[in-house]
């Protein structure tokens, strides 16, 4: 019975692996791009408020507030397009994961559960980035295109 069930599930699993997984991974990359790029643009739109938030609200460990603000906005604005396009995807995922982690660590209200939706969002985004770190960016990524070219030349 179990053997038949396993055999019967092989074709649907192969379909998912070959056809749906690349779209899922692309969707993850585009969603994370949207969230983090918009956040970076918001920081740039009112830099004085951003500096005030990093000075008064967010307490990034070991970094002066101005440097933390530049690194946060820079990470969001530079790494998220790489992530979306699938260029150095795992590097971009790791960098955005660190930005996301710093957001969790530096905003104490998140740990006091004054903002549980924010906590859940950050954990969700972190999980999606870990998927790309572990599985890779998928077929619809510049990295995959480069790897295919390298294999063709070899």
Order of helices and strands: HHHHHHH
- From the spread of the alpha carbons, the general shape counts as globular
* Domain count: 1
User: Describe the biggest sheet?
Assistant: none
Oligomeric nature of the chains: single chain
Low-confidence stretches: none
Count of alpha/pi helices: 7
If you average the pLDDT, what whole number results?
91
Q: In terms of structural class, how would the helical and strand content be classed?
A: mainly alpha
Q: What's the N-to-C terminus distance?
A: 45 Å
Strand portion, in percent? under 5%
- Roughly how much helix do the residues carry, as a percent range? over 70%
Counting DSSP E segments of at least 2 residues, the number of strands comes to 0
Radius of gyration: 19 Å
What do you see in this structure?
The protein has 154 residues and is mainly alpha-helical. The chain has one domain (26-153). Helix content is 84%, strand content 0%. It is globular and about 60 Å long. The mean pLDDT is 91.
Q: What is the strand and helix layout of this fold?
A:
Layout: H1 2-45, H2 47-56, H3 65-85, H4 89-106, H5 108-111, H6 116-135, H7 142-153
Helix pairs in contact: 1-3, 1-6, 2-3, 3-4, 4-6
Concise description?
The protein is mainly α. It is 84% helix and 0% strand. The chain is globular and about 60 Å long.
What characteristics describe this protein?
154 residues, 7 helices, globular
